[in-house]
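Troubleshooting: if your tokenizer reports a length mismatch, compare your output against this known-good record of 266 residues.
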Amino acid sequence: MRGDAQIEVSDLGVTVAGRSLLQGVDLQVRPGRRVALLGASGSGKSLTVQALLGLLGPQFRVQGSLRVAGRDLPWRQAPGRRPGMAAVFQDSQAALNPVVRLDRQLLSAVARRRQVSAAAAAQIMANLLGEVGFEDPERILGAYPSQLSGGQRQRVCLALAMAASPQLLVADEPTTALDMISQRHVVEALRRCTGQGRSGLLFITHDLAVAADLCEDVVVLEHGRVVETGSMEQVVRSPQAAFTASLVAAARAGLRPTEHALGAAS
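Known-good structure output:
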């Protein structure tokens, strides 16, 4: 992954109570590229994301460097104040207040972010909900989160994240808890919202089949270290690390709906 990086993490290391959790993690997302951060549970994916977003607590010791659009940023920064970044997490239910209608939750946030009137915020949000695949944005805005499916809530969270016009969208396991149909809708929404001329994407997942369907580049983590990195096509066609090879074999054997992306690289 060469070229001018929009987001660049270099030699990231994280320790807690003297125990090393991440070691020498390098990660780049170029403008408009979709990068998968791939690994099994406990590999360090979420820890990397928390460091990137400034969410690690004071008990963690963080080293390395973070550059956003050529500017060095500290690892310690108030949560939610990373310039140029927005995030969507796995648990959409926890991200939304279940007893407050969506319009009351979302429109004030959009008005603040964009510094626009309530009416303008409503139009912006309706447009974004349409972009993530809702045919009836007004109905969605008038609904309570409990009235929506998990996939619908996740797409609402994605629309809200995109209201910040981020340079980088971080999507941390956004499809893990969803059924296949909802998963496909979320992946298509991510595809429409990111890519060339739009936001870059860092897509965190343990599912290589989904990652191969969406992302051009991949970084593979195992036990807190990067074991492989490169274009998705190259890594899927000729994995160099034993762990990556096992992921490719498992994905090909799984007969997933996204298997065409793996088969094309065979």
